[in-house]
Protein 1
Amino acid sequence: MEADSAEPLLSVEDLSTHFQTPRGLVRAVDGVSFELQRGRTLGVVGESGSGKSVMARTLLGLLPSVARVSDETQIWFDRQDLRQLSGADFRKLLGPEIAMVFQDPLTSLNPVMTVGAQIGESLVHHLGMRKSEARNRAIELLASVGIPLPEQRVGVYPHQLSGGMRQRVAIAMALACEPKLLIADEPTTALDVTVQAEILDLLQRQQQERHMAMILITHDLGVVAGRTDDVAVMYAGKIVERAPTKELFDNMRMPYTEALMNSIPRLDDPPHTVIQAVGGRPPDLIDPPRGCRFSPRCRYAVDRCRTDPPELSATPDRADHVFSCWYPIDRSEVAA
Amino acid sequence: MSAAEALLEVDDLVVEYGAGGGRKVHAVSGVSFELLRGETLGLVGESGCGKSSAGRALMQLPRPTAGQVRLDGEDLTLLSGEDLRRRRSKIQMIFQDPISSLNPRRRVRDIIAAPLLIAGDKDKQAREMRVRELLDAVGLDPDQAMDRRPHEFSGGQCQRISIARALILEPEVLICDEPVSALDVSVQAQILNLLHEMKDRYGLTMLFISHDLAVVKNVSDRVAVMYLGRMCELASSEALYARPAHPYTAALLSAIPEPDPAKPPQPVAMTSGELPSPLDPPSGCRFRTRCPHAQDRCAQEEPPLAEIEAGHYVACHFPLWSGAAAAD
């Protein structure tokens, strides 16, 4: 897929979100920048506490009141400065322009509203449809996300559906107003593996048919490998590596990305293969390490890594592959 | 493998739960397998397949509805009270959520020593020595950990504490029920390596229950696949992953997202749709409603678990390959 040469749909610059807690200030997201073109898919991979969900919730304006987004943070979406929008104007974007799908469909759906009424709600509210029109559109949407017997399912409540079916309903709701950007935060983590495959296929198909941009947030490198254009890896509140998906997997430069990859048991390996686990755990974001945040766990770390934080930068030959490491891994050297 | 001695034999295990109105949840319906001394048997399947119910039934928690669970030849389902407690101490279990499986109000030293106390160990000093030894074995510093409470530890550390507690009575069998599912991948790898190490060090026999086929392959000598309360396939790890014979095993394997862009996602070889209700499972083969190869016979006759090559069992009327085909 060729990137559109036009300006990006979403442009995020120096995004920082901090939480005031009794223990101190938690720097959950600390200076994240990226761009997303129309119709492209960005995978965001990280472990718990990497800041990937807080980053998404910052984009969606869905933060708890203790959170503070820094003044330097800039978020531009479709030529609008989201940081300058009033709450009411921002809410007008949620649904028609930017939509989301969360991990647990049972908590993101309203338990006392029928599936059809929930999908129809945004159609009535944002598009001014009449109720009967909205109901018919809801049936079409349920059919398009692969729910059998949509005319009957439109009248059921979320608890009457399985987890996979609920997630399909949540996707139908997100797609109802034809958003330009879909943010899916761990959309398949609560689902069984066969259902996960179906939901990921569905998201990919819808994304391509609607030429919608998508941010797919996951802890699973396997999920992003086959289904995204670009991947950003987050660690301790920062993006530590970002590249087109194939380039990232073929030529990972950041030792954390490599460590994450090595800790996954692989189907191709024989039983009892020893996994190269990385020791320790992610740092406390109240008092993160001074230099590179991965340095305490990095097997390549030297003194400089522990004092100077590396910037996200590219090599001269590959501008679209950025990483933050003083001593990046060089596959060609490893091979030689 | 066939020469190895069976430490735990499970025969025609049935677990049913009352669901009100005289209805029953058929969680496990006639499952048999053996745990050979020193092996790790993986038990895989999706939610609701009965893998956790089977694991708990081995511990008699609760007692299975029918069937036998023989440890070293002795049927645990016939024991009760003190006899059961004593015999059962040879089987220990660790769970998915390490934080909620530890009592938040107790200190780590008391949590780990609890099994010893229950077993009647009265020597306080000896208990403390054992707790220190186990903490050290699972990679925690006894001086720092002993007097803290579970909330002061991360999920991975809590799982280490659970493992220490499970091993303090020197069990022969360790049942691990989704022990790494709640952990981040980097921590998951540490715990898997720790389990390998503990198994070698204490000569454990393990039943490893998980929904993650890649994890199960990594830890298991043999793997059993369950679907809706029945066993579909049982084989050595290598054979099961290299040449699955049951359509459900093949579907599961095709659904795993691999961290390799050169292997694009494949269509899942399974009819999409709902998992049938365990209140009213399908007649015949329980997988038939979602099986792409199902025929009339599958609805009428329940397929028995049959051996199609040495040590490779499959319960299917129309397996993806059979012994005859493999001989070609």
Note: Chain A has a mean pLDDT of 92.
Protein 2
Amino acid sequence: MTSSYQHQGTGRDYQKNLLGAWYRRLENAPRDGTPVAYLFISGNIGELLRSFGFELLFPEVNALQCGIKKVSGGMILKAEDLGYSSDVCGYVKNDIGLAATGNRGPFGALPKPDLLVCTYSGCNTYIKWFEALAELYGARLFLLDVPYRRTGETQRQEDLDYVVAQLEQLAAVCAEITSRPYDPDRLSQSLAHSRAAEDLWVRILESARHRPSPFDAFFEAVFFMAPIYVLRGTRECVDYYEAAWKEIEERLRYRIGPVSEERFRVVIEGPPPWPHFRNFWELFKRWGVCCVASTYSKVGGIWDFGLRHDPARPLESLAEYAVNCYTNWDWTLRRQMLDRYAATYQADALVIHSVKSCRAFSVGQADVREYFTKTRGLPTLFVESDLADPRYFAEAQIRNRLDAFFEALEHRRLAAHRPEAARPGA
Amino acid sequence: MEPLNFFWEEAKSWDELVEKCRTLWLDPAGSTVRAWKQQHPGEKAIGCFPVYTPQELLVAAGCLPVSLFGGRGQVEIDHADSHIQSFVCSIARSTLELGLAGHIDWLDGFVVPSICDVARNLSGIWQHNFPKGFVLYLHLPQNVDSAAAGTYYRGELERLRDSLATLTGRPVSDEAVRRAIRVYNRNRALLAELFERRAARPAQWPVVHVYALAAAGNLLPRQEHNRLLERALVLGDANLCPQRDVVRVALRGAFCEQPPLELLEVLEEAGCAVVDDDLQIGARFFLAPVAEAGDPLMALADAYRHRTVLTPVNNPGRRSRSDDLLRRCQEKALQGIIFASPKFCEPALYDSVLLKRALEGAGLPVLEFEYEEKMTVFETVRMQAETFVESILFFSER
């Protein structure tokens, strides 16, 4: 991409600046007297907390930052020294290790929580993680219980009513801590921003339907999605997606994309191996692979099937959102999503990156591989490593599997396009 | 095929009764359940994944609840490998294997409670591989202090009850649920009595024996298990054994996946009298009887929210797991705690870190190790346990 383009690089650089500024606000929160709430990306009901003036901190995002900056290994070892098993989630251990070494990471210093909100109970590890932090910081813990979204049923009203009732209780807790009353108008204004950002984000995601795709829906999406996860509900978040969309529009206009020549279009299931992110991406780029749809970009919200935050129904739409984050869908719904992505985005293959740390994500992926290869006839590559723990990334092995897979796909394609007479036995 | 016989009525001695229960437990293919189905044509046997499933509703619906505790070391993983990864606990893998290999083809349905991420996802794998079977994922509330959790969980129970009624073609009355609650209250009272006797005289009531007697309840109709336990209490009283020099310990971590019986034997041989444990805790989940009058679904919901034992997979709410364990240590005059976590069981592995810290702060000795269903070598555990016992006997002030 040359400098004659006006908008290229915006998506990456702008989000980097936004996140930098957000981390500085967090660093200054104790000095500024700003209350801080810790929460998770899944079921992230940040708009409600922000309406009370909380600054938000996401331990998961800190963990992935440590991963991508290659400092997670040391943090994980520190947590293992403190008694955590080698078999538990690397994100949790990264965070415990970080807290035990002064809570200062590549992003700066982190404030202590005034409130811990476990925004999603579907991941048992989340609950355990915040129970440990509650003990460590002596902070109040609010557990938002989010029922699993099960197939064969339309959205159950009981599930939503239960979450709404808990959001009302959470609002009362926030009012008590911040001495500010619950302000539904303020929340609605914030949700209007959320909705605007969601419309733009979906437009970016769906741009990958074009051939070639202007956008890698996994390796680039992880940067492009950051603002909608950590700053959703703010004006600056909407501004970001307006600018990012300009970048995508320009790419469409000039038929430019994340790989110089798009040879394979894939759907990716599973999170990235953060400590080896770039190497992992390079393995795909060498084969001209573009990810056209991914499930990881839906962990913080599924908006491409029509759901939106709704300023007219603030708590109800927050509940709908929380119930419908990706890992809160049961396997039938997840399989249907992958099926739909493969068809809509005209994918040549499915790639599953199975991570040991996150059982909520990964248990069942082997079964999905069976389904896609045997029932759907979609070539499926299955590789295993981890999202945080660098010890689990066996690069040579992953490279071999990947090369063999795409070589076979290429061979299959050549064989299919060979003239009839040239085929053996024809 | 052997018919379901009522061996407890015939048993002449404690050892004979225990041996029969042990054989029953070590048959994960459940030939007794197969026999029950033959004797009750058209009736349904429903699998329940640990830790806790409200089996009262299954009984009220006329079904036989069967707790699925995996392969109990008796099953080779073959078919399940291509459906579930190797970094997953044995119980999930071997339960799936039992299904895929056709060992438990008598199973008419599967209820999976929301105890952990693996169990939750296993419900989806099961549904996909057994599309004609009945699979119900039950959301146990986590925000137990919220009044909304009571209403919500009552709704979940209603959903389970109505799904079972659809499956069997018979409605489930409130009175039928109350009757089942009475049967289970009686069962919990008998189990409590058995465990209390063991805590008072551990040599007379060896942990593996008590375990086998309790385990039989996972495969038998619960009212029959009540009769078995009544008989066991009589026979056990006559089974006099000399007291040994032992240390009184609690065992934690085995609430879901079960350790091999040999491991319990090794602990006992090393001098650990396990007088407080969470083995198969689902059958002993409530600290007080469930209300037998009024709305039976609300009674079950209230009991779940307020009167459960604390495990790593149910939420303590305002209670504290550490305080609870420290209090039990005091009440039962415990001299040490053993954390035996199943390999890859995240809830147990997370909790043990915090609990250990609390125990060490209170000066209580802790031993920790991991186990697997297919574990066959116990020498390391034996050595660790012997050292643990000696350190308490010779150096501890407790």
Note: Residues 28-176 of chain B form a domain with the Rossmann fold fold (CATH 3.40.50.11890).
Protein 3
Amino acid sequence: MRILVSIDDTDNFTTKGIKGTGDLAKNISRAIKSNGWGASRRITRHQLLLHEDIPYTSHNSSMCFEADIDPQFLQNVIDFSSRHLETESEPEADPGLCIVIPERLADPERLISFGYRAKREVLDKDGAYALAAELGIHLSEHGGTGQGIIGAMAGAGLRLGGNDGSFKDKHKVGEPGAIFSAAELCALAQVDEIKSLDGAVLGGDETVALGNMVKSILSGGKTVIPVQLSESAGQAPVWKTCSKEQIHLLQRTGQ
Amino acid sequence: MTGSERDPYLSVKLQAAEQASGCRSFRPDVEEECVTDEPLSCLNCYFRRWTSDSYRCMAGKPATTD
């Protein structure tokens, strides 16, 4: 059974900065595997609205991953995730947990739409709980104000939509300036496609130079490395992997 | 997917790098929350708090770019 596990708001102003929300998501993902409940896919980070009306906005991003689990272990995943958020989140955080079973959603578009609204508007907990109840989604708070349920459910919706978020961690495929064909880079980084910023999928023999970092994003339901045109004067184009700033902008603008 | 929009936060990029270089409270945020390629920048600091078009420093210093 395919599930989406999404968490938000686990860190705060006084934290020592050792464990971010992404680390907690990774711990839950690993527990699913180590306990034999199933297998997880990579974690995505989803940028939500950055606005002063959202208290102490340090990130306002949520972390989500897909997992294929044996249905008999669904409650184990919920229980473990809940306990983990309660014990590992910072004392002043407002953690929230959302677990979605996509195949049971009567109207997935409503969840996806909620995710996109959370990138543009300040939403409230009542609306999140009402939608979760209607759609049969697990939504729970695990400390503080529980405000994190909003971002947690938004993250699940955005992951389900398949066109938002960047994958956690960088791809370690080579030093800046190294040159690969698009096919080689896809194989090395284990991604589906290399795409230009205007959405064109690179052919396998096109040339890509590594920038300062290589990150992938979720686009069209696929794992994609975004690139920009580096040089093309009079010769075949050379593409370059996008900078951290460009990746951040893609996340904020919803790609 | 388009990279043509301008990111309002990056309008303070130079200032954020300058301020962080002289700041004793700077602490890098977790990797996935860093937004600029300049490692030492208020934009990548754990103590920055975002506003709609800029950030505030919450490390016990006066606000930096309100």
Note: Chain B touches chain A at residues 1-5, 7, 9-10, 13, 27-37, 46-52, 58 (CB under 8 Å).
